[in-house]
Structure formats: C-alpha cells, structure tokens
UniProtKB/TrEMBL annotation:
This is TPR repeat-containing protein. InterPro entries: TPR-like_helical_dom_sf. Residues 1-39 are annotated as: Disordered.
Length: 170
C-alpha cells in the first residue's frame, strides 16, 4: 500500500523454512502482496510453487483459480476449482466461482446454473451467489426471472458488481 512491496516480500522470504501450515499462510500472504502490487503473474507463480509441495491445499487451489481468472487461464481456473470441490464438497464459493466464470464466458450455461444452484443450496443467503444465479439466468435469456433474482441479491448487498448486473438485466 505504501510502495514497500519488495521490502514485504523480502521479509517473507527471510523467514525460516515453514511447516505445511505456515507455508500455506506465508504463501497466501505473499501472493496477496503481489496481487495488491498488480503482479498477478508473480502471485500465480508463487501459488504454483507452493502447490507443488501442498497439492491438496484447498485455500491455495482456490486462490490460484482466482488469479488464473485474471490471467485468462480458464483451463487452470476450472481444474483448480474442480479439485477444490472434490476435496471440499461443501465449499459453496468454489461451486459459485466456477459457475460464475462459465456464465461470464457464456459457456456451458446449463452446467454453470447447476454449479451455482449447488452453491446456493450450501449458502442460501449469500448475495454474491444469488447474484451469480441471476447472472446465469440473464445469460440464458430468462430476463424477467434474472431481474427478480438480481433485485433480491442487490437488496441483500448493494455491491457495485451486483448493481452492474442488475442494471444490465433491466
């Protein structure tokens, strides 16, 4: 935040060799610093390196999927989120992220809707998951239904992205 990105990264790299849990925490801190500095490729590389040691870390897989999306690496995003879902079938945000990413790309909308409905069954009051459902409904051409769903999401959280989706659907 104060232009001290390299200093923060150097400090993290001087820490002693971590346990698995500490490696995960350190990696998440490092990739967040890199993302905040606009270095999405560096964050992706950091996460990939840690995943070589901790291949079943759902937190690292999820974060790499998010960064992969920013790098237009849908192949990695999809693979990582499917792995998260396999390891943690109750992780609503993994279903939502995958379904929403498909809807954003206007691909496999039936599957996107199924993934988002699964996320909604796990977390029925989450406004971002409700927004995703409204967005996939919009992409499928169910305009009236999508407006109702997006209004419900916006009422729960007037987030700018939800507002943008609602505005487009109207």
């Amino acid at each position: 935040q104060q232009g001290q990105t390299q200093k923060a990264l150097d400090m993290l790299s001087r820490m002693p060799a971590p346990s698995s849990e500490r490696l995960e925490q350190r990696t998440l801190a490092q990739e967040q610093i890199q993302r905040d500095a606009g270095d999405d490729q560096g964050a992706f590389d950091t996460l990939s390196q840690a995943l070589a040691t901790l291949p079943d870390s759902t937190d690292l897989l999820y974060e790499r999927a998010i960064v992969a999306d920013k790098l237009n690496r849908f192949d990695v995003l999809e693979k990582d989120l499917r792995r998260v879902i396999a390891l943690r079938p109750d992780y609503a945000h993994a279903y939502n992220a995958l379904g929403y990413s498909m809807a954003e790309r206007n691909i496999r909308l039936d599957e996107a809707g199924d993934l988002i409905r699964k996320a909604l069954s796990l977390s029925p009051d989450d406004p971002f998951i409700i927004d995703s459902l409204g967005w996939v409904q919009y992409r499928e051409g169910h305009f009236h239904e999508s407006v109702d769903t997006l209004k419900r999401a916006f009422a729960a959280d007037p987030d700018p992205e939800i507002a943008s989706h609602l505005g487009e659907a109207l």
